[in-house]
């Protein structure tokens, strides 16, 4: 029924799978039983054998039986469902806390030492708590292999926790339709050996892959981590927002408080567009789709983004 080898992926797999198999078994039994009974009745009580219908006025024993048995079965399903769900809300006091931020259409994970990633890195055999935050619309964090899913509502404090039991990469994606690029809102959970994770965690230096002489490399990394490329293409194609290809230094027509005007896309314009995206909306695009990044990006980050934009001629 489930992928082989994931039973130890997290501490919740066994409880969820047990509950599922019991409910699935009960449903399957009654589906087959009721269908078979219906087919039997079609032939046993067809009109040619019973041309005159007979009225049945009730059977107390039968009514008691079909009330008690379904009630007992529902309580069995409730019990196993509750026993699988209850531990998900009992977070250990010493759990390792990571802030998980969802926004259209990107995941970002912030660690207590200042690290920020777009992939969730966690240690094996250690309790991990995710504080869930949605910055725009309703999202839903789902890790299938861990049997975990939690809707994330803007303005509401929510969390999930788990203990990963096996090293490897596991899918993580949004299961609440959140707009045009909902299907691209996917990343991974990377479960690492505790010692390896500790070394990764304490290393707060810049990722080696972005230490390069190539212009704009750090800016590209920043926009990738913040999900900017979900709305802005680099090849000239039109998606949610204006393409960045050839954008910097160009003249654009924008709407400012409903008034159409021409502006040059320079450093000041880019910074204001990131911090106050609804001030000057490029003609042909909708207002309100982008939220401010004041709390996510520093001026130094935006300068790096601008350097990257300059390379997109």
UniProtKB/TrEMBL annotation:
Superkingdom, natural source: Bacteria
Cofactor note: Binds a copper A center.
Topology relative to the membrane: Multi-pass membrane protein
Domain named Cytochrome c: residues: 214-313
Domain Cytochrome oxidase subunit II copper A binding residues, every copy: 93-203
Cofactor(s) needed by this chain: Cu cation
Cellular component, GO annotation: plasma membrane
Location(s) in or outside the cell: Cell membrane; Membrane
Protein EC: 7.1.1.9
Enzyme class of the recorded protein, top EC level: translocase
Catalytic activities: 4 Fe(II)-[cytochrome c] + O2 + 8 H(+)(in) = 4 Fe(III)-[cytochrome c] + 2 H2O + 4 H(+)(out)
Gene3D superfamilies in UniProt: 1.10.287.90, Cupredoxins - blue copper proteins, Cytochrome c-like domain
Transmembrane portions of the chain: 20-43, 64-85
Gene Ontology terms for molecular function: copper ion binding; cytochrome-c oxidase activity; heme binding; oxidoreductase activity
GO biological process, one term: ATP synthesis coupled electron transport
Alphabetized PROSITE patterns for the sequence: COX2 (PS00078), COX2_CUA (PS50857), COX2_TM (PS50999), CYTC (PS51007)
Entry coiled-coil feature ranges: none
InterPro entries in the cross-refs: CcO_II (IPR045187), CcO_II-like_C (IPR002429), Copper_CuA (IPR001505), Cupredoxin (IPR008972), Cyt_c-like_dom (IPR009056), Cyt_c-like_dom_sf (IPR036909), Cyt_c_oxidase_su2 (IPR014222), Cyt_c_oxidase_su2_TM_dom (IPR011759)
Keywords: Copper, Electron transport, Heme, Iron, Membrane, Metal-binding, Oxidoreductase, Respiratory chain, Translocase, Transmembrane, Transmembrane helix, Transport
Function per UniProt: Subunits I and II form the functional core of the enzyme complex. Electrons originating in cytochrome c are transferred via heme a and Cu(A) to the binuclear center formed by heme a3 and Cu(B).
Protein name as catalogued: Cytochrome c oxidase subunit 2
Protein's organism: Ancylomarina salipaludis
Gene: coxB
């Amino acid at each position: 029924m489930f992928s082989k080898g994931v039973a130890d992926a997290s501490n919740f797999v066994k409880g969820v799978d047990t509950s599922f198999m019991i409910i699935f078994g009960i449903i399957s039994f009654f589906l087959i039983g009721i269908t078979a009974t219906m087919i039997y009745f079609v032939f046993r009580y067809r009109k040619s054998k019973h041309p005159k219908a007979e009225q049945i006025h009730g059977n107390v024993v039968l009514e008691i039986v079909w009330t008690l048995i379904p009630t007992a079965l529902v309580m069995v399903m409730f019990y196993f469902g509750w026993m699988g769900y209850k531990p998900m809300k009992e977070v250990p006091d010493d759990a390792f806390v990571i802030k998980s931020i969802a926004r259209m259409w990107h995941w970002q994970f912030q660690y207590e030492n200042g690290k920020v990633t777009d992939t969730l890195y966690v240690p094996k055999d250690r309790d991990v708590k995710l504080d869930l935050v949605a910055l725009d619309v309703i999202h839903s964090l789902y890790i299938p292999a861990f049997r975990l899913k939690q809707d994330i509502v803007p303005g509401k404090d929510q969390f999930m926790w788990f203990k990963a039991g096996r090293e490897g990469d596991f899918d993580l994606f949004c299961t609440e339709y959140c707009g045009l690029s909902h299907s691209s809102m996917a990343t991974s959970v990377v479960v690492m050996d505790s010692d390896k994770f500790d070394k990764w965690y304490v290393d707060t230096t810049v990722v080696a892959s972005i230490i390069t002489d190539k212009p704009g490399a750090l800016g590209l990394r920043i926009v990738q981590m913040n999900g900017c490329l979900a709305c802005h293409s680099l090849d000239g194609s039109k998606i949610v927002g204006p393409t960045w290809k050839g954008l910097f230094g160009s003249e654009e027509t924008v709407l400012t408080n409903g008034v159409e005007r021409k502006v040059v896309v320079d450093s000041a314009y880019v910074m204001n567009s990131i911090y106050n995206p609804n001030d000057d909306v490029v003609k042909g695009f909708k207002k309100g789709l982008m939220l401010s990044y004041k709390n996510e990006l520093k001026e130094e980050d935006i300068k790096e983004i601008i350097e990257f934009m300059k390379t997109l001629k």
